[in-house]
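can u pls check wat happens w/ pyridoxal-5'-phosphate
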Amino acid sequence: MIYLDNHATTPVDPQVVATMLPFFTEHFGNAASRNHAFGWAAEQAVETARQQVGALIGASPKEIVFTSGATESINLALKGVADMYGDKGRHMITVNTEHKATLDTAMVLAGNGMEVTVLGVDRFGSIDLDELAAAIRPDTVLVSIMHGNNEIGTVHDVTAIGALCKAKGVLFHVDAAQTAGKLPVDVNAMGIDLLSISAHKLYGPKGVGALFVRRKAPRVRLSSQMHGGGQERGMRAGTLNVPAIVGLGAACAISQAHLQSESARLTALRDRLFAGLNERIVGVTLNGHPTARLPGNLNISLEAVEGESLMLSLKAIAVSSGSACTSATLEPSHVLTAIGLSPEAAHTSIRFGIGRFNTEADIDTAIQVVSEQVGRLRQCAVALA
Ligand SMILES: *Cc1c(COP(=O)(O)O)cnc(C)c1O
């Protein structure tokens, strides 16, 4: 089976696995053990990883806090700011196409006295910068916007948003789970104060991530959401998951080394897939932005075809549909409805996530099997009508 669902998760790069392995059995020390070589080796490996994560996003190693993934990083950023800046104001701004980790956290904060403005998007999934500027108030403490969207691939202009936040003296958090290691990220050039990363989206292990917390201009203060041994400068207590952190560091270094060439390769594969599908299937529409989008992302709606049925009929390729199975009902994705798709149109959508280990042959197979199945499903529909 060909894996084309790299926005959901990615396989761990074998080089990353090899780097991690000694830290399970040989260098198994607690990075907080100051009294012996086992602890020192673990601590040194963690510091190397901290430097590798920082280097990928243009941050100092001291600004990296290790977490269990982007969900935790986002929770720490939003709740940590809400706690520490309550005296300055109790208003934050986010967008309706964000990942649930952001939207659900913002809703919890809203239940605790924070006022949350949720901006809408246009049909490409982009925000209006003037609308954002107008939404920023004297009591706004945080703007939280993702870099690249995990469903429709739309990339926000974080540099412009960062400049706006800087000018207004508002903290800016970026969910970079889909872009770190895939698109250039520079926290200084982009005016970013907090940034969330997930290892399993960039060919590292699951259950580990990082939060960038700016230390200068301004020095961002966060309240810890996890209390205990005071690890991570008191921002995230708990014994560090050394093998996973080593894996995250290695994954960042590998991604950084191949960022330009890999993003060009994925863009070419994505364009080949779109062109091939368009050639063989009528009624294909692109969801998301035509140009400002993630290199490996292709989200399309296929007229008169149930995305869910298509996905299940594709035995040779693993993809995602535009609906999330929640219990018995098929809820259309909140992102697809945010860009104006009707529930029916959202149900005809399918998402391809092309990644590091996909080849041109994979794409050609996908074009063939998808066009075959779309033809079959449409014939069935005509026969039934
Ligand atoms: C995957 C993802 C997350 C959550 O990351 P985890 O590490 O799985 O918790 C958050 N935001 C975006 C955009 C994602 O793609």
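The pocket of pyridoxal-5'-phosphate is lined by residues 69-71, 99, 101, 146, 150, 175, 177-178, 198, 201, 209 (CB under 6 Å).
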